[in-house]
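QA checklist item 7 of 12: single-chain prediction sanity check.
[x] sequence parsed
[x] length recorded as 402
[x] structure emitted
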Amino acid sequence: MSEGYYILLVKTAVQSIFRAKLRSFLTALGIMIGVMSVVLLMAFGLGIKNYISDQFQELGSNILYVVVGKIDGNLAAGSRALASNFRFKLRDVASLRRLPEAEVVVPIYLQPRVKIQSGKNSFYGDLVLSDDGLYKAYNYQNFVGKFFDESDLRGREKVAYLGWNTAAELFDSPAEAVGKTVVVEGVRLRVIGVAKEKGGGSASDFDNNVVAPYTAFPQLDPENNFYFIYLRAVSETQLNSLKNRVIAVLSRNYDADDFSVIEPTEMLNAVLNIFSFVNIGLVGIGAISLVVGGVGVMNVMYMAVTERIKEIGIRRAIGAKKNDILLQFLVESIILSLFGAVIGLVLAYIVVLLIKPYFAAEIDLTIVGTAFGVSTAIGIFFGSAPARRAANLEPVSAIRYE
C-alpha cells in the first residue's frame, strides 16, 4: 500500500473525530486522565530515584559503613540491628585507624527524632554523636562558626553543631545561632557552628541534625559505644582491600553475624529495589484509569460504527475491502487515544514544572515513549472489536440500513 493510502486513512479518521468534537473530547478525557496519572507517578518515581542516587553519589565511591548486625542488602535487618544490644567500641575504631588503606575512620552514635529546644522554640531532628573527624567525613561546610575539635572532645565540652534546618527552626535566622543554647535530651549545649544548607528535606538529611561530641552525653552512651563506623579509603582502587581488612580486624573479636561492612552502592541497590516494587504498584493503580478510558474509546467507536453503517456499505459496494474498513476504524481509535495522551502528557509536564522546586519529579524520553506506546496499544486493543464489527458488515444490508 502506498504512502498516500495511509495519509488518506489518517485524514479520514481526523475528519470523523472532528465531526463529533464534544464526544471525541469527552472520550479522550478518560485517556488524558489515565496518561496524566501514570506519567506523574512515573515522574515522581524517576525523580525520587535520581534524588536517592545523587545523595549516595555525594558520599563518594570510596566509602564503607560498618554497621551492627548482618544485613546482606536487607534494610529491614538493619532496623532490627539498631534495636540490638551489640555496639562497636572505641578500641574497634582505634584498630581500624591503623589500617594503611583507611584515610578517615569515624565512630557514629545516632539518636533519631529527638526534641531540640531553644527557649520556646522546638524542632525534632537527629542527634549525632561523633568525634571531630565527622566534619571531614561528611563534607560539612560552615555557614557560621566552626565544628568542634579534639580539645572539645577531650574536655567533654557541651557544644553543638547545627544543621541548617535545625538552626532556621530554632532561631530567627541561622546566623544568630552561634553562642546560643539548645537543650537536647536534657543536656544544655552551646552552639558553636551552623552548617551550610545541603538541600533535601527528609528527616535523615544533614540539614536536620544536631551534632555533638560523643563525650558530651555520658548518660546516653556511658561506655562510648557506637551504632556505625564510617570509613573512607585512601583511593577507590583500595576500597576492596580496605573492606577485606576491616572484616579481618573485626572478626578477631566478633562473630560474622554481629556486623556488616557495606558499600554505599549496596545500600543504594537495596533501596532502589524496594522502591521499584512500590512504584510498580502505584503505576499499576494509576493504570486502572487508563483501562476505564480505553472502555470509553471502545464504546464511542461502537457508536461511530452504528452511525456510519450506510457509509460503510457504500464504501464496500464501490470496492473497499474488509481490511480497508478495519484499518479506517483502528486508525480513528488510535488517533483518539493519542489525542488524549498528548493532552495528558502536556498537563503532567506542567504539573512537574510547578512542583519540581518542592518535590523530586522528572520526565524523560522513556516516560514519554511509554505514554505514547501505551496509548497506541489501548487504541488498538479497545478499537479492534468495533473495527472488526464494521469490517464484517454485509454491504447490501449496510446500504439498506436506516
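[x] summary fact logged: The CA atoms of residues 41 and 399 lie 48 Å apart.
[ ] second reviewer sign-off
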